[in-house]
Design a protein that fits this description.
17 strands; binds iron/sulfur cluster
Length: 592
């Protein structure tokens, strides 16, 4: 009996599925899951370092699954980090991490690809590797699958560099296919233990960083035209409810609005759009290929799509008769947004969210959030007139240059919005964490006490229809260190994992004491990472370029301190960030 048959037998006959929560996380066989004969194919295991319901909601993971499986010579399967109860069962029965398509053990694959979406998922990566039977440290591996990392957090690969053989930085579609092609061609090197030679070969691919090979200037991989990659009309449909239980269509990649705190804005620059016809056709296919009752048009700022009005006009007649909802996540605050939101709400009225991010105009200028109080109030008024009873506002605390006036501004602004007549106003407050590759990468991160004081002050205004929700302040400092850390921080990640840290991004699982202990064991001076960096210092992630020049980030940082804004280059002309020239991509305003 093969290992895969043994795992299948264990799942079916051992009773394990009756003992663990949400057993459909582990059974696979979902609608549209890909099945191929693995013989003679390059085998890739796409591993999401979080629970099934989180990973199944993630678009990038789906894109790579489809792209890899579109090649005859590659078979890509999926796995997600089993929940703790299942991990215990697997350990008791010596069952390794397995794929959901063929129940194959991870060690049978040639590549294990792990996406890094958020820093608090780093210990989950170690859990995946350990469960897979792959040595945690890349230096200890010989014949095991090549462990590849990707996703936005890979743009500062240093904290996780001891655990990955290589990272693909930037858009994955082209680069991963190139890497797979090279591994396929040189598979004998892997099978004969000449791992380093193989890694040297793949390190030549644009966007690939191999931590065991001397650092060089790595420029991110970028897809010039996202339309070269078709919308997946047959995404895998889960049996259970997942976090975002809907079909997702990527309508645009990138955002040039230039919010100075936003790493995704830099990571995905410049803007590239799909044309209206292509999107409508994609949605049509998805509706045929799945049973979803909601389709989300995804991007960092969907309302900025140059054809958004025509697009919704074309999509609504397709969806309305079947009561299929359309959702357009957006953080923009303008009347046009509310107009469109109200049109799509004719099918199903969902909540309305605005993200002013800061309580005063001064601070909104600092962060380059080009939203005025008048914009917000007039949008809220329109929304109320159109029948919305509930509204949600997003804010951050701990932003650079913040004063008590800015915190009080959150309260004042919220009260003015509430006074418009909403039944319920939710104020969601998160602590600001400076991220690599953003203009605020140099900024100081405020400590937990300061966050808590500000949070306590805000909480005091909860009530009378205003519900203030504060993000757990104890995880921010850890996220900040993992985010702006160097290679030394890897030791703390390892120690935290050894001490039991896992699923840290789940509030009820996060244990700050573990991390404090881990930083101590690893001799990490936490203050060093909070204090920020000077603009002429070499930063730990500077060997990686996302295409945006350091000069631009420095200039944006100083402009922020003076409260000067920088308009969206998409509509007002190049602001000089360099990404278009560096990547050889035109900042695509409209693709029709
Ligand atoms: S290079 Fe110019 S046009 Fe291109 S994204 Fe940067 S600022 Fe915008």
């Amino acid at each position: 009996m093969t290992v895969s048959e043994e795992i299948r037998k264990w799942l079916v006959f051992s009773g394990v599925l009756t003992r663990v929560g949400k057993p459909s996380r582990y059974i696979g066989k979902e609608l549209n899951a890909v099945l191929k004969d693995p013989a003679g194919k390059l085998r890739v295991l796409l591993a999401f370092p979080d629970a099934y319901e989180v990973g199944m909601s993630h678009l990038g993971f789906k894109i790579l699954y489809r792209e890899l499986n579109s090649r005859d010579s590659i078979f890509a399967e999926r796995t997600y980090l089993p929940w703790k109860d299942m991990i215990e069962e697997m350990r008791k029965s010596s069952v390794p991490l397995f794929s959901l398509e063929t129940y194959s053990p991870a060690l049978e694959f040639d590549i294990v690809g792990i996406t890094l979406q958020y820093e608090l998922g780093y210990t989950n990566v170690l859990a995946l590797l350990e469960l897979a039977g792959i040595p945690l440290f890349q230096r200890d591996r010989t014949y095991e699958p090549i462990v590849l990392g990707g996703g936005p957090c890979a743009s500062n690969p240093e904290p996780m560099s001891d655990f990955f053989d290589a990272f693909v930085i930037g858009d994955g579609e082209e680069a991963i296919i190139e890497v797979c092609g090279l591994i396929e061609k040189n598979i004998d090197l892997l099978k004969s233990g000449k791992r380093r030679e193989l890694l040297e070969t793949i390190s030549e691919v644009r966007g690939v960083y191999v931590p065991s090979i001397e650092r060089k200037n790595i420029v991110k991989a970028a897809v010039a035209d996202i339309s070269d990659y078709e919308i997946d009309g047959k995404p895998v449909v889960p049996f259970m409810k997942v976090i975002h239980d809907r079909a997702i269509v990527e309508v645009m990649r990138g955002c040039n609005r230039g919010c100075r705190f936003c790493q995704a804005g830099i990571f995905y620059r410049p803007v590239r759009e799909r044309g209206k016809e292509e999107i409508v056709e994609g949605v049509r296919e998805i509706l045929k290929g799945t049973g979803y009752d909601e389709v989300s048009l995804l991007s960092l700022s969907t309302m900025d799509h140059s054809q958004i009005g025509e697009l919704t006009d074309s999509l609504l007649p397709l969806m309305e008769p079947r009561r299929i909802a359309l959702s357009l996540p957006s953080s923009r605050v303008d009347a046009f947004d509310v107009e469109i939101a109200s049109r799509i709400a004719s099918i199903r009225k969902t909540g309305l969210t605005f993200a002013p991010e800061a309580g005063t105009q001064r601070l909104r200028n600092v962060i380059n959030k080009n939203v005025t109080e008048e914009d917000l109030l007039s949008c809220a008024m329109i929304a109320r007139k159109k029948g919305w009873q509930r509204l949600k506002l997003y804010f951050m605390i701990g932003l650079p240059t913040e004063t008590s006036e800015d915190i009080e501004g959150i309260v004042k602004l919220s009260r003015r919005v509430k006074a418009i007549g909403f039944k319920e106003l939710t104020i969601s407050v998160a602590d600001f964490i400076p991220k690599p590759h953003t203009p605020f990468q140099f900024s100081r991160q405020i400590d937990e006490n300061e966050v808590s004081q500000k949070a306590e002050f805000l909480k005091g205004f909860s009530g009378r229809g205003i519900d203030i929700k504060i993000h757990n302040p104890s995880s921010g400092p850890v996220e900040g260190i993992l985010s702006r850390g160097d290679r030394k921080v890897g030791r703390a990640i390892y120690e935290a994992y050894r001490l039991g840290a896992m699923f840290d991004e789940w509030d009820d699982q996060f244990d700050r004491r573990i991390w404090d202990e881990a930083f101590k064991i690893a001799s990490i001076d936490t203050e060093y990472y909070f204090k920020g960096y000077s603009t002429d210092e070499t930063l730990p992630w500077e060997h990686v370029s996302l295409g945006v020049s350091k000069e631009f980030l420095v200039s944006e940082y100083f402009r922020s301190l003076k409260g000067q804004t920088t308009p969206d280059c998409r509509w007002t002309g190049c602001a000089g960030c360099s990404v278009c020239g560096r990547l050889g991509i035109t900042n695509v305003l409209r693709k029709v």
